Model the fold of this input.
Amino acid sequence: MLAISFSALLAWLATPHFTVALTHSLLFSALYVGSIYLLTALRASSLSSNAASAVSIHDRDHPQVIKQRTLGALLATMLCLGIAGVQLRAWQADAVGSMGLGYAQVAGSVIVAMVLCCVIYLGPLMLDYLDAATQGRGAISWKRLWALVSRDLWSSPQLLRNYVVGPVTEELVFRTCVVSLWTVSPDVSTNKTVFLSPLVFGLAHVHHAWAHRQSNGVWLRTLFQIAYTTVFGWFAASLFIKTGSVAGPVCAHVFCNIMGVPDLGRIGEYRGWRRVAVWAVFLCGLIGFIALYEPMTRKGVFV
Done:
């Protein structure tokens, strides 16, 4: 009976279809989120030397917790890449190419991602420019940017997590591993892949609610975060499929983490023509993104 069940499992895994891809997607999400807490919990004794200075494993901004979570995320990412690679090879697909890990499309994917991100964020970028002008400093300081990349980023666990570890590991798991299996499955359309696969990415962020479960409005903030990450997932999944590389989604993820959620409330701080100009730039950014997306991701243009 066991042999028959195992043979049936192998036969099921050998056939590319939606249920196999979805099962792997949920597995990858569980491995990624679970590793963040499991490794930290197993090494909880190293987080503090005594009970008075005890650190909760849910304190995501504590340097030691970040260190443990980073190690867990890296291990989970490598495991997911291995599982996805083996599964894709079983389906006789080009594993490296299907997973967006080839080098041929890297430059095009990055160019497309950064141009589209800058366009959609035209409004927030203008707000940053106006804020900088109001405070009497340059809107763009290459010295500050170089300091961030060369010094601040590597000395701050929070910045390293937000701008390097998080974007890289999440895109490798939720785009390279998840989306690649969906796209290879013949019974999964491109639209279904773009709009449904990011739900796994969005739901993977529910665990943040547990850490702040006693805070007011935690579930509302969690639902907003799921919605925001899902919308970004639509863009990242589409970009991954269109460009054939994970490099673009990674860069887009870093850019969006740096910019954050657009704060429309800041527009109210300005009056007269400046407020009208900001709203116009926001609108132009949205229209420009819609207008440029299809031409820029068309085969033969940049990719």
